[in-house]
Amino acid sequence: MRLFALLWLAATACMVAIAQEKETLTVEWIHSEEGKAVDGVPEFAWLNDNTALLYDSRQPKEQRIFERLDPQTGRRAPALNREKALASLQGYLGVRDSTQFLTWPESFDGSGRFALYLWEGDIYLLDLTAAEFRRITASESEEKAARFSPDGQKLAFVRDNDLYVYDVVQQTEKRLTSEGSETLLNGTLSWVYWEEIFGRQDIAYWWSGDSKALAFLRTDESEVSQMYFPDFQPAVPRLITQRYPKAGGENPLLHVGIVEIENPDPLWVALGPPLYEYIVRVDWLPDHRRLCVQTLNREQTELRLFLADRFTGVAAPLLLETDPAWVNIHDDLYFLKDGKHFIRASERDGYRHLYRYTLDGTLVNRITRGDWAIHSAGGEVFWVDRAVNAIDEKKGWIYFTAQEKSPLERHLYRIRFDGSGMERLSKGEGFHSAAFSPDARYYIEIYSNLRTLPSLSLYRSDGRLQQTLAKPRPELLDKFALQHPEIFSIPAPDGFPLPAELLKPAQFDPERRYPLIIYVYGGPAAPTVADEWRSSLLFDNILLQKGYLLARIDPRNAAAISKTLENLLLGEMSGQLELADLLAGVKWFKEQPYVDPERVGIWGWSGGGSFTLNAMTRSREFKAGISIAPVTDWHYYDTRWTEFAMKRPQDNPEGYEKTSFVKTAKDLHGRLLLIHGTYDDNVHPQNSWHFIDELIKANVMFDMMFYPMRKHDIGDDPAQIHLYNRMMEFWERNL
């Protein structure tokens, strides 16, 4: 027994020594070049000839180069002479740090010969074959939203809110629209469309498949309300103006135009009746003669599809989608090359599924079915969804991602047009995001889960691995003894399993009581619990090192399980329903013997910042909380996002009253740190100013941190480093 005790002590001492050898993870390291590259994978783009271009940003900057990948042979070869290309670039921009290496471009033409760059407001083309840059514009105005035509012979762009086209072969420029002004936009988006409808992409024009015409949006913002942001410099600070439609206010007015490149005289598409409020999507049909325009009414309960003629502008109704709460916008609409059918996703039965129609709007058949939804496996923002990855008309397959296996995962599937033969192609647990070659014979997949860093692999269309392009690199994190969360569910009072997650420190002691920090977001279909790698795990592990437990809880409406659950928020978003689910989870955690029920904190950003205020003013469960960039009253947020669930203030005054945290600020319980950027053009600082004013009136003490001229993400490295160190300081002092 004595020998066993000695051996046990020796083994324990060895384990402690090993643990002590591990480095301490810091916020500064996370934002270093090494830290940022930990979970990176190479950039890639498929080309028309079914080869792909790769760019490995994980390599040292001076070694990065474009490679051409042949999916059949797996051969990778340099796509240009890097040294010659850099010398050409430096001839235009001079020798500086940013011209010492190549960067991933805005886009490539379909052949992969030209790469498009924007530098200092001008457009440059890199000829990969010749390894030479060419400056396309040299105007005093800024050029933006540049994109190649399908044949690669032209590129369109926007200057001073007018559309232009550049002939790559002839090296000539042509103006396509006129009358662009501060409030009249041609081919570029207003803020609310950029943010809420097109997912932070400036997509306001579309090339026809024959590269001879453009469909575009003309936006009139003259009646939209204005917001102002004062800079802190120079001595008399500049004043920035933004057109931003507040809930219940005037929206931009939009029309769809069609302009022929050879005869730039816009033809306007005649939509309606009925009148529309939003134009949410424009798509060309494969015949190049028609385009589909999708409109949404102000209440966002009716989404209509119209087919418009390219040469007359006459539009005819095609399909009507309705929902008693609101219709979600998505990108799953596909017109088939047979000229007879189209495929579209719908949530008509409470789950998003695929349906096939004829071109007169007649339903042919349902394609996918079940108590699960098709769903994208990633993207710029969660509120723009594209689940279909490819459609192979010759072989009769539709490839898509869905959460059929689990709402916490995304897997790749394929199915026949008639709904038969569905099979799952992806294997490992977690998230699988696939991008197919134009002929749908191959796809490149990004894969990860909570314990596995992202990797990049090439597959055949039947799911067979062809080649691993970039393995995960866990060795980069080995020095930190990183911990990974466990996922489980917590039963709500009515039995609903709320998705939850818990992170424990490496030396977790079940006999000890730990302070607990809960991260929240909330809102419709915005889960925080998912079996996918996320970079925030690194910061979470810093908190673990300091002795905290980290948890996440998703209210049922946020779990992205079904539209039925989303619709529960109708009329009262960020209200009592979401809070009830959160508090059920908090109660469960407080009952665990390893949680100190007197030291529970909560934090969130944007919608999560709002949820934090919801929880801290309408319950007494939290000792401290951090709210970053919160909406404190829906009157202060934009029309499109606010009104889909809340409707207009004049139509739902009671709902706006119930969800106003400026009304409940006086009831704040626990110590609050309120954080905002002074140039937040998404959630305006007035949200925090008003909440603060109510705290002052009620003599409630709080902490605040404002970041000068930072936007919603407070995204630059110095601000991020300061922000997260400030948060840790707050937790240490108050939790």
In words, what does this structure look like?
The protein is 19% helix and 32% strand. It has an eight-stranded mixed beta sheet with strand order 36-37-39-38-40-41-42-43, with helices on both faces. The two termini are 42 Å apart. Mean pLDDT is 95; it is low at 1-19.
Q: Segments where pLDDT lies below 50 for 5+ residues?
A: 1-19
Q: In the CATH hierarchy, what is the class of the largest domain?
A: Alpha Beta
Radius of gyration: 27 Å
Number of domains: 3
Sheet-strand content, in percent, reads: 25-35%
Briefly characterize the structure.
It contains 14 helices and 43 strands. The protein is of the alpha+beta class and 735 residues long.
Write the layout of secondary structure elements.
Blueprint (H helix, E strand, L loop, with lengths): L1 H20 L5 H4 L2 H5 L5 E4 L5 E4 L10 E4 L6 E3 L3 H12 L13 E2 L5 E6 L2 E6 L4 E4 L7 E6 L5 E6 L2 E6 L4 E4 L8 E3 L4 H7 L7 E3 L5 E8 L5 E5 L8 E5 L9 E8 L6 E2 L9 E7 L5 E7 L5 E8 L5 E8 L10 E3 L5 E6 L6 E6 L4 E4 L21 E5 L4 E6 L8 E6 L6 E2 L6 E6 L5 E8 L2 E9 L4 E6 L15 E6 L5 E7 L10 E6 L16 H10 L3 E5 L9 H4 L9 H15 L4 E11 L1 H11 L6 E5 L10 H8 L6 H6 L2 H4 L6 E7 L8 H12 L5 E5 L9 H18 L1
Parallel strand pairs: 38-39, 38-40, 40-41, 41-42, 42-43
Antiparallel strand pairs: 1-2, 2-3, 3-4, 5-6, 6-7, 7-8, 9-10, 10-11, 11-12, 13-15, 14-15, 15-18, 16-17, 18-19, 20-21, 21-22, 22-23, 24-25, 25-26, 26-27, 28-29, 29-30, 30-31, 32-33, 33-34, 34-35, 36-37, 37-39
